[in-house]
Input
Amino acid sequence: MIQRLLEEILGDISANIKESFSSYEIEFKHPDLNILSQKLNETNYTSLNNLINKFHYKWDLVIDEFSYSINQEEFSALEIEEYDNVENISVNFNIYKSSSLIVIINNNAFNEYLQSTTLHRLLEVINTLASNFKIENEQDEFEINIKKNENIDISNQCNFKNHILFPYSPDTFYFDNIDDKTKSILDDYFLKLSQVFCFTYLFSSSEIDGDDLHLSITGNLTFKYTLNFKKICVSSLQYYYQIYRWVYSENNKIEDKISISRNIITSYITKDSIKIDNSVFNSILSSNQIYIKGNISKYFEVRNKIIEQIEQTVSNVNKSIDSFVTNFQKSSFVFISFFLSVFIFKVVNKSALVEIFTKETSLIGIGFIIISFLYLIASRIIISMESNRIEKRYNNLKKRYEDVLIKQDIEKILNKDFEYKSEKTHLKDRIFIYTIVWVLSLITFTVALFLASEYLEI
Output
Protein backbone atom coordinates (compact mmCIF):
# COMPACT_ATOMS: atom_id res chain seq x y z
CA MET A 1 0.00 0.00 0.00
CA ILE A 2 1.37 3.39 -1.03
CA GLN A 3 0.20 5.22 2.10
CA ARG A 4 1.76 2.71 4.48
CA LEU A 5 5.11 2.67 2.67
CA LEU A 6 5.25 6.47 2.58
CA GLU A 7 4.66 6.60 6.33
CA GLU A 8 7.54 4.18 6.85
CA ILE A 9 9.81 6.41 4.77
CA LEU A 10 8.63 9.92 5.64
CA GLY A 11 7.17 9.39 9.11
CA ASP A 12 3.87 10.88 10.34
CA ILE A 13 2.39 12.65 7.31
CA SER A 14 -1.36 12.14 7.90
CA ALA A 15 -2.04 15.80 8.66
CA ASN A 16 -0.20 17.11 5.60
CA ILE A 17 -1.83 15.17 2.75
CA LYS A 18 -3.92 16.67 -0.03
CA GLU A 19 -5.55 14.45 -2.61
CA SER A 20 -7.82 15.00 -5.60
CA PHE A 21 -8.77 13.18 -8.80
CA SER A 22 -5.56 14.30 -10.47
CA SER A 23 -2.94 14.33 -7.71
CA TYR A 24 -1.73 13.17 -4.31
CA GLU A 25 0.41 15.75 -2.48
CA ILE A 26 2.40 15.81 0.74
CA GLU A 27 4.01 19.03 1.98
CA PHE A 28 5.41 19.09 5.50
CA LYS A 29 8.37 20.02 7.73
CA HIS A 30 10.48 16.99 8.46
CA PRO A 31 11.86 17.05 12.05
CA ASP A 32 15.19 15.39 11.20
CA LEU A 33 16.63 14.97 7.69
CA ASN A 34 19.31 12.60 8.98
CA ILE A 35 16.61 10.03 9.65
CA LEU A 36 15.01 10.76 6.26
CA SER A 37 18.34 10.27 4.43
CA GLN A 38 18.61 6.82 6.00
CA LYS A 39 15.05 5.93 4.98
CA LEU A 40 15.56 7.21 1.43
CA ASN A 41 17.72 4.28 0.45
CA GLU A 42 17.65 2.46 -2.85
CA THR A 43 15.67 -0.46 -1.44
CA ASN A 44 12.80 1.74 -0.24
CA TYR A 45 12.97 3.76 -3.47
CA THR A 46 12.61 0.60 -5.54
CA SER A 47 9.68 -0.64 -3.43
CA LEU A 48 7.89 2.71 -3.69
CA ASN A 49 8.60 3.08 -7.40
CA ASN A 50 7.34 -0.43 -8.19
CA LEU A 51 4.19 0.19 -6.17
CA ILE A 52 3.36 3.45 -7.96
CA ASN A 53 4.39 2.13 -11.37
CA LYS A 54 1.60 -0.46 -11.18
CA PHE A 55 -0.77 2.40 -11.93
CA HIS A 56 1.55 4.01 -14.53
CA TYR A 57 1.71 7.20 -12.47
CA LYS A 58 4.53 9.73 -12.39
CA TRP A 59 5.85 10.99 -9.06
CA ASP A 60 8.61 13.04 -7.45
CA LEU A 61 10.06 13.91 -4.06
CA VAL A 62 11.68 17.34 -3.71
CA ILE A 63 13.67 19.08 -0.97
CA ASP A 64 14.30 22.57 -2.30
CA GLU A 65 16.72 23.69 0.43
CA PHE A 66 19.08 20.86 -0.51
CA SER A 67 18.37 20.99 -4.27
CA TYR A 68 17.42 17.36 -3.98
CA SER A 69 14.85 15.45 -6.03
CA ILE A 70 14.05 11.90 -7.08
CA ASN A 71 11.31 10.56 -9.32
CA GLN A 72 10.10 7.42 -11.11
CA GLU A 73 13.07 7.56 -13.48
CA GLU A 74 15.99 8.57 -11.28
CA PHE A 75 17.25 7.87 -7.76
CA SER A 76 20.04 9.57 -5.86
CA ALA A 77 21.01 9.37 -2.20
CA LEU A 78 20.27 12.31 0.08
CA GLU A 79 23.70 13.49 1.25
CA ILE A 80 23.88 15.73 4.33
CA GLU A 81 26.97 17.50 5.65
CA GLU A 82 27.70 17.88 9.36
CA TYR A 83 27.16 21.62 9.28
CA ASP A 84 23.79 21.40 7.48
CA ASN A 85 20.66 22.42 9.33
CA VAL A 86 18.51 19.27 9.25
CA GLU A 87 15.55 20.27 11.42
CA ASN A 88 12.11 21.29 10.10
CA ILE A 89 13.08 21.20 6.46
CA SER A 90 10.28 21.40 3.85
CA VAL A 91 9.68 18.14 1.97
CA ASN A 92 7.35 17.83 -1.02
CA PHE A 93 6.09 14.54 -2.40
CA ASN A 94 3.70 14.39 -5.38
CA ILE A 95 1.92 11.65 -7.36
CA TYR A 96 0.40 12.68 -10.68
CA LYS A 97 -2.60 10.53 -11.58
CA SER A 98 -3.85 9.66 -15.05
CA SER A 99 -7.31 10.59 -16.39
CA SER A 100 -8.34 6.98 -17.01
CA LEU A 101 -7.37 5.38 -13.67
CA ILE A 102 -7.86 7.29 -10.41
CA VAL A 103 -6.53 5.58 -7.31
CA ILE A 104 -7.66 6.97 -3.95
CA ILE A 105 -4.68 6.59 -1.64
CA ASN A 106 -5.91 8.43 1.46
CA ASN A 107 -9.63 8.48 2.25
CA ASN A 108 -9.52 11.36 4.72
CA ALA A 109 -7.64 13.67 2.36
CA PHE A 110 -9.81 12.79 -0.58
CA ASN A 111 -12.98 13.22 1.50
CA GLU A 112 -11.83 16.70 2.53
CA TYR A 113 -11.30 17.54 -1.14
CA LEU A 114 -14.80 16.34 -2.07
CA GLN A 115 -16.43 18.22 0.80
CA SER A 116 -14.72 21.44 -0.29
CA THR A 117 -15.76 21.00 -3.93
CA THR A 118 -19.10 22.30 -5.22
CA LEU A 119 -21.39 20.22 -7.42
CA HIS A 120 -20.65 22.44 -10.42
CA ARG A 121 -16.88 22.14 -9.92
CA LEU A 122 -17.07 18.38 -9.34
CA LEU A 123 -18.79 17.90 -12.70
CA GLU A 124 -16.23 20.19 -14.37
CA VAL A 125 -13.46 17.95 -13.03
CA ILE A 126 -15.28 14.85 -14.30
CA ASN A 127 -15.41 16.54 -17.73
CA THR A 128 -11.60 16.52 -17.80
CA LEU A 129 -11.37 12.77 -17.17
CA ALA A 130 -11.25 10.11 -19.87
CA SER A 131 -14.43 8.92 -21.59
CA ASN A 132 -14.15 5.63 -19.72
CA PHE A 133 -12.36 5.90 -16.39
CA LYS A 134 -12.00 3.71 -13.34
CA ILE A 135 -11.68 4.69 -9.68
CA GLU A 136 -9.95 2.35 -7.24
CA ASN A 137 -9.75 2.78 -3.48
CA GLU A 138 -6.63 1.33 -1.89
CA GLN A 139 -7.94 1.44 1.67
CA ASP A 140 -11.50 0.16 1.13
CA GLU A 141 -10.64 -2.07 -1.83
CA PHE A 142 -13.53 -1.08 -4.04
CA GLU A 143 -13.63 0.16 -7.62
CA ILE A 144 -16.06 2.15 -9.75
CA ASN A 145 -16.16 2.08 -13.55
CA ILE A 146 -17.57 5.16 -15.28
CA LYS A 147 -18.60 5.28 -18.94
CA LYS A 148 -19.28 8.90 -19.83
CA ASN A 149 -20.22 8.30 -23.48
CA GLU A 150 -23.20 5.99 -22.86
CA ASN A 151 -25.86 8.64 -22.38
CA ILE A 152 -29.53 8.85 -23.33
CA ASP A 153 -31.03 11.89 -25.05
CA ILE A 154 -33.04 13.95 -22.60
CA SER A 155 -36.76 14.53 -23.17
CA ASN A 156 -37.91 17.64 -25.04
CA GLN A 157 -40.06 18.42 -21.99
CA CYS A 158 -37.03 18.69 -19.70
CA ASN A 159 -35.28 22.05 -19.54
CA PHE A 160 -31.90 21.19 -18.02
CA LYS A 161 -30.00 24.45 -18.37
CA ASN A 162 -26.56 22.87 -17.90
CA HIS A 163 -27.16 19.98 -20.31
CA ILE A 164 -24.61 21.12 -22.90
CA LEU A 165 -21.92 21.55 -20.25
CA PHE A 166 -22.77 18.35 -18.36
CA PRO A 167 -24.29 15.89 -20.87
CA TYR A 168 -24.60 13.00 -18.43
CA SER A 169 -27.49 10.72 -17.52
CA PRO A 170 -28.43 8.90 -14.28
CA ASP A 171 -26.87 5.72 -15.71
CA THR A 172 -23.41 7.33 -15.72
CA PHE A 173 -23.21 7.42 -11.93
CA TYR A 174 -25.69 4.76 -10.81
CA PHE A 175 -24.54 1.67 -8.88
CA ASP A 176 -26.42 -1.18 -7.24
CA ASN A 177 -24.41 -1.13 -3.99
CA ILE A 178 -26.42 1.73 -2.52
CA ASP A 179 -26.35 0.31 1.01
CA ASP A 180 -22.62 -0.49 1.09
CA LYS A 181 -20.71 1.63 3.59
CA THR A 182 -17.08 2.67 3.09
CA LYS A 183 -14.81 5.21 4.70
CA SER A 184 -14.67 7.07 1.40
CA ILE A 185 -17.63 9.30 0.56
CA LEU A 186 -16.97 9.04 -3.18
CA ASP A 187 -19.48 6.25 -3.78
CA ASP A 188 -22.07 8.29 -1.88
CA TYR A 189 -21.23 11.35 -4.01
CA PHE A 190 -21.61 9.38 -7.21
CA LEU A 191 -25.00 8.11 -6.08
CA LYS A 192 -25.96 11.71 -5.33
CA LEU A 193 -24.88 12.62 -8.86
CA SER A 194 -27.14 9.86 -10.18
CA GLN A 195 -29.97 11.31 -8.08
CA VAL A 196 -29.26 14.78 -9.48
CA PHE A 197 -29.50 13.53 -13.07
CA CYS A 198 -32.65 11.53 -12.28
CA PHE A 199 -34.19 14.88 -11.34
CA THR A 200 -32.90 16.59 -14.48
CA TYR A 201 -34.24 13.79 -16.71
CA LEU A 202 -37.69 13.73 -15.07
CA PHE A 203 -38.44 17.22 -13.82
CA SER A 204 -39.69 20.14 -15.91
CA SER A 205 -36.80 22.50 -15.23
CA SER A 206 -33.42 22.13 -13.54
CA GLU A 207 -30.21 24.09 -13.13
CA ILE A 208 -26.92 23.46 -11.32
CA ASP A 209 -25.65 26.61 -9.63
CA GLY A 210 -22.55 26.18 -7.51
CA ASP A 211 -23.46 23.58 -4.91
CA ASP A 212 -27.22 23.99 -5.38
CA LEU A 213 -29.67 22.25 -7.67
CA HIS A 214 -32.73 24.31 -8.62
CA LEU A 215 -35.72 22.18 -9.62
CA SER A 216 -39.24 22.67 -10.87
CA ILE A 217 -41.80 19.99 -11.69
CA THR A 218 -45.29 20.47 -13.12
CA GLY A 219 -47.89 17.72 -13.20
CA ASN A 220 -51.25 17.83 -11.49
CA LEU A 221 -49.48 20.28 -9.18
CA THR A 222 -46.36 22.43 -9.48
CA PHE A 223 -43.45 22.31 -7.01
CA LYS A 224 -40.17 24.20 -6.87
CA TYR A 225 -37.11 23.19 -4.87
CA THR A 226 -33.56 24.31 -4.17
CA LEU A 227 -31.47 21.35 -3.00
CA ASN A 228 -27.95 21.54 -1.58
CA PHE A 229 -25.88 18.80 -3.18
CA LYS A 230 -24.16 17.80 0.06
CA LYS A 231 -27.55 17.33 1.76
CA ILE A 232 -29.27 15.36 -1.00
CA CYS A 233 -30.61 12.07 0.36
CA VAL A 234 -30.28 9.02 -1.89
CA SER A 235 -32.88 6.91 -0.08
CA SER A 236 -35.32 7.54 -2.96
CA LEU A 237 -32.72 7.07 -5.71
CA GLN A 238 -33.69 3.51 -6.59
CA TYR A 239 -37.32 4.57 -7.09
CA TYR A 240 -36.50 7.66 -9.16
CA TYR A 241 -34.03 5.60 -11.16
CA GLN A 242 -36.69 2.93 -11.74
CA ILE A 243 -39.06 5.60 -13.09
CA TYR A 244 -36.30 7.09 -15.24
CA ARG A 245 -35.47 3.70 -16.79
CA TRP A 246 -39.14 3.07 -17.57
CA VAL A 247 -39.69 6.53 -19.09
CA TYR A 248 -36.64 6.30 -21.36
CA SER A 249 -36.97 2.61 -22.26
CA GLU A 250 -38.83 3.33 -25.54
CA ASN A 251 -37.76 6.33 -27.61
CA ASN A 252 -41.14 6.78 -29.27
CA LYS A 253 -43.05 6.88 -25.98
CA ILE A 254 -40.81 9.10 -23.83
CA GLU A 255 -42.96 12.21 -24.05
CA ASP A 256 -46.18 10.40 -23.08
CA LYS A 257 -44.52 8.49 -20.26
CA ILE A 258 -42.83 11.54 -18.75
CA SER A 259 -46.16 13.41 -18.64
CA ILE A 260 -47.82 10.49 -16.87
CA SER A 261 -44.89 10.19 -14.43
CA ARG A 262 -44.98 13.87 -13.50
CA ASN A 263 -48.70 13.74 -12.80
CA ILE A 264 -48.19 10.85 -10.38
CA ILE A 265 -44.96 12.14 -8.78
CA THR A 266 -46.55 15.50 -7.98
CA SER A 267 -49.38 13.63 -6.28
CA TYR A 268 -46.92 12.04 -3.84
CA ILE A 269 -44.25 14.66 -3.13
CA THR A 270 -44.88 17.76 -1.02
CA LYS A 271 -43.45 21.25 -0.92
CA ASP A 272 -41.21 20.14 1.98
CA SER A 273 -40.21 16.67 0.82
CA ILE A 274 -39.14 15.21 -2.49
CA LYS A 275 -38.92 11.63 -1.20
CA ILE A 276 -40.92 8.83 -2.84
CA ASP A 277 -41.26 5.08 -2.43
CA ASN A 278 -42.05 2.09 -4.67
CA SER A 279 -45.80 2.80 -4.61
CA VAL A 280 -45.18 5.80 -6.91
CA PHE A 281 -43.86 3.60 -9.69
CA ASN A 282 -46.76 1.18 -9.29
CA SER A 283 -49.19 4.09 -9.58
CA ILE A 284 -47.40 5.28 -12.71
CA LEU A 285 -47.77 1.84 -14.32
CA SER A 286 -51.48 1.74 -13.45
CA SER A 287 -51.99 5.24 -14.82
CA ASN A 288 -50.20 4.25 -18.01
CA GLN A 289 -52.52 1.26 -18.47
CA ILE A 290 -55.56 3.54 -18.15
CA TYR A 291 -54.00 5.94 -20.64
CA ILE A 292 -53.37 3.13 -23.13
CA LYS A 293 -56.93 1.79 -22.86
CA GLY A 294 -58.31 5.30 -23.33
CA ASN A 295 -56.34 5.72 -26.55
CA ILE A 296 -56.60 2.21 -27.97
CA SER A 297 -59.72 3.07 -29.99
CA LYS A 298 -57.85 5.96 -31.63
CA TYR A 299 -55.00 3.61 -32.41
CA PHE A 300 -57.27 1.15 -34.19
CA GLU A 301 -58.95 4.01 -36.03
CA VAL A 302 -55.59 5.17 -37.39
CA ARG A 303 -54.58 1.57 -38.06
CA ASN A 304 -57.69 0.84 -40.11
CA LYS A 305 -57.31 4.12 -42.00
CA ILE A 306 -53.75 3.37 -43.07
CA ILE A 307 -54.77 -0.14 -44.16
CA GLU A 308 -57.63 1.33 -46.22
CA GLN A 309 -55.39 3.87 -47.96
CA ILE A 310 -52.66 1.32 -48.60
CA GLU A 311 -55.19 -1.09 -50.11
CA GLN A 312 -56.43 1.71 -52.35
CA THR A 313 -52.86 2.38 -53.49
CA VAL A 314 -52.26 -1.32 -54.12
CA SER A 315 -55.46 -1.51 -56.17
CA ASN A 316 -53.96 1.07 -58.54
CA VAL A 317 -51.39 -1.56 -59.50
CA ASN A 318 -54.19 -3.75 -60.87
CA LYS A 319 -55.61 -0.76 -62.75
CA SER A 320 -52.25 -0.36 -64.47
CA ILE A 321 -52.41 -3.99 -65.60
CA ASP A 322 -55.98 -3.53 -66.86
CA SER A 323 -54.89 -0.47 -68.85
CA PHE A 324 -52.06 -2.39 -70.52
CA VAL A 325 -54.33 -5.35 -71.34
CA THR A 326 -56.94 -2.99 -72.81
CA ASN A 327 -54.29 -1.45 -75.10
CA PHE A 328 -53.25 -4.92 -76.24
CA GLN A 329 -56.84 -5.93 -76.93
CA LYS A 330 -57.48 -2.76 -78.92
CA SER A 331 -54.37 -3.37 -81.02
CA SER A 332 -55.36 -6.97 -81.72
CA PHE A 333 -58.93 -5.92 -82.54
CA VAL A 334 -57.65 -3.42 -85.13
CA PHE A 335 -55.68 -6.14 -86.91
CA ILE A 336 -58.49 -8.67 -86.87
CA SER A 337 -60.96 -6.05 -88.10
CA PHE A 338 -58.60 -5.03 -90.88
CA PHE A 339 -58.04 -8.62 -92.03
CA LEU A 340 -61.75 -9.44 -91.90
CA SER A 341 -62.67 -6.25 -93.77
CA VAL A 342 -60.27 -7.00 -96.60
CA PHE A 343 -61.34 -10.66 -96.74
CA ILE A 344 -65.08 -9.81 -96.80
CA PHE A 345 -64.44 -7.19 -99.49
CA LYS A 346 -62.78 -9.85 -101.66
CA VAL A 347 -65.63 -12.30 -101.13
CA VAL A 348 -68.35 -9.74 -101.94
CA ASN A 349 -66.55 -8.68 -105.11
CA LYS A 350 -65.96 -12.35 -106.02
CA SER A 351 -62.23 -11.75 -106.36
CA ALA A 352 -59.62 -14.49 -106.20
CA LEU A 353 -58.64 -15.36 -102.62
CA VAL A 354 -55.13 -16.54 -103.44
CA GLU A 355 -53.59 -13.10 -102.84
CA ILE A 356 -55.95 -11.18 -100.62
CA PHE A 357 -53.96 -7.97 -100.07
CA THR A 358 -53.19 -5.55 -102.86
CA LYS A 359 -50.34 -3.07 -102.81
CA GLU A 360 -52.47 -0.44 -101.09
CA THR A 361 -53.94 -2.72 -98.42
CA SER A 362 -50.53 -4.30 -97.83
CA LEU A 363 -48.98 -0.90 -97.12
CA ILE A 364 -51.88 -0.05 -94.83
CA GLY A 365 -51.31 -3.35 -92.99
CA ILE A 366 -47.59 -2.56 -92.58
CA GLY A 367 -48.59 0.84 -91.22
CA PHE A 368 -50.91 -0.77 -88.64
CA ILE A 369 -48.11 -3.15 -87.55
CA ILE A 370 -45.64 -0.27 -87.08
CA ILE A 371 -48.21 1.79 -85.16
CA SER A 372 -49.02 -1.22 -82.96
CA PHE A 373 -45.34 -1.77 -82.22
CA LEU A 374 -44.92 1.90 -81.26
CA TYR A 375 -48.06 1.61 -79.16
CA LEU A 376 -46.49 -1.39 -77.38
CA ILE A 377 -43.36 0.63 -76.56
CA ALA A 378 -45.43 3.59 -75.39
CA SER A 379 -47.62 1.32 -73.22
CA ARG A 380 -44.50 -0.19 -71.58
CA ILE A 381 -43.07 3.28 -70.84
CA ILE A 382 -46.37 4.55 -69.44
CA ILE A 383 -46.88 1.53 -67.20
CA SER A 384 -43.29 1.86 -65.92
CA MET A 385 -43.93 5.53 -65.07
CA GLU A 386 -47.23 4.60 -63.45
CA SER A 387 -45.52 1.89 -61.41
CA ASN A 388 -42.89 4.37 -60.14
CA ARG A 389 -45.59 6.90 -59.32
CA ILE A 390 -47.54 4.34 -57.30
CA GLU A 391 -44.38 3.32 -55.43
CA LYS A 392 -43.61 6.95 -54.50
CA ARG A 393 -47.19 7.46 -53.38
CA TYR A 394 -47.01 4.28 -51.29
CA ASN A 395 -43.77 5.38 -49.56
CA ASN A 396 -45.07 8.91 -48.98
CA LEU A 397 -48.21 7.46 -47.41
CA LYS A 398 -46.09 5.43 -44.98
CA LYS A 399 -43.96 8.45 -44.06
CA ARG A 400 -47.07 10.53 -43.45
CA TYR A 401 -48.21 8.11 -40.74
CA GLU A 402 -44.80 8.04 -38.99
CA ASP A 403 -45.92 11.16 -37.09
CA VAL A 404 -48.76 9.11 -35.58
CA LEU A 405 -47.40 5.56 -35.42
CA ILE A 406 -43.88 4.30 -34.88
CA LYS A 407 -42.04 2.91 -37.88
CA GLN A 408 -41.96 -0.61 -36.46
CA ASP A 409 -45.73 -0.54 -35.93
CA ILE A 410 -46.33 0.59 -39.51
CA GLU A 411 -44.09 -2.21 -40.79
CA LYS A 412 -46.04 -4.69 -38.70
CA ILE A 413 -49.42 -3.43 -39.96
CA LEU A 414 -48.21 -3.65 -43.57
CA ASN A 415 -46.51 -6.99 -42.93
CA LYS A 416 -43.24 -5.50 -44.19
CA ASP A 417 -44.90 -4.40 -47.49
CA PHE A 418 -45.75 -8.01 -48.33
CA GLU A 419 -49.03 -7.25 -50.13
CA TYR A 420 -47.59 -4.33 -52.08
CA LYS A 421 -44.49 -6.26 -53.13
CA SER A 422 -46.68 -9.22 -54.10
CA GLU A 423 -48.85 -6.99 -56.31
CA LYS A 424 -45.77 -5.42 -57.90
CA THR A 425 -44.38 -8.86 -58.71
CA HIS A 426 -47.77 -9.89 -60.11
CA LEU A 427 -47.77 -6.73 -62.25
CA LYS A 428 -44.31 -7.44 -63.67
CA ASP A 429 -45.19 -11.06 -64.45
CA ARG A 430 -48.45 -10.20 -66.23
CA ILE A 431 -46.89 -7.33 -68.19
CA PHE A 432 -44.09 -9.64 -69.28
CA ILE A 433 -46.57 -12.27 -70.46
CA TYR A 434 -48.79 -9.78 -72.30
CA THR A 435 -45.72 -8.19 -73.92
CA ILE A 436 -44.64 -11.60 -75.25
CA VAL A 437 -48.17 -12.27 -76.53
CA TRP A 438 -48.30 -8.80 -78.12
CA VAL A 439 -44.96 -9.30 -79.88
CA LEU A 440 -45.97 -12.78 -81.08
CA SER A 441 -49.26 -11.34 -82.36
CA LEU A 442 -47.33 -8.70 -84.32
CA ILE A 443 -45.09 -11.40 -85.80
CA THR A 444 -48.11 -13.55 -86.69
CA PHE A 445 -49.94 -10.67 -88.33
CA THR A 446 -46.80 -9.68 -90.24
CA VAL A 447 -46.22 -13.23 -91.55
CA ALA A 448 -49.91 -13.55 -92.48
CA LEU A 449 -49.78 -10.21 -94.31
CA PHE A 450 -46.75 -11.22 -96.35
CA LEU A 451 -48.22 -14.61 -97.23
CA ALA A 452 -51.57 -13.14 -98.34
CA SER A 453 -50.15 -10.12 -100.17
CA GLU A 454 -49.68 -9.82 -103.96
CA TYR A 455 -47.26 -6.92 -103.32
CA LEU A 456 -45.10 -8.08 -100.41
CA GLU A 457 -42.61 -10.96 -100.67
CA ILE A 458 -40.87 -12.95 -97.97
About this structure: The chain is about 55% helix and 15% strand.
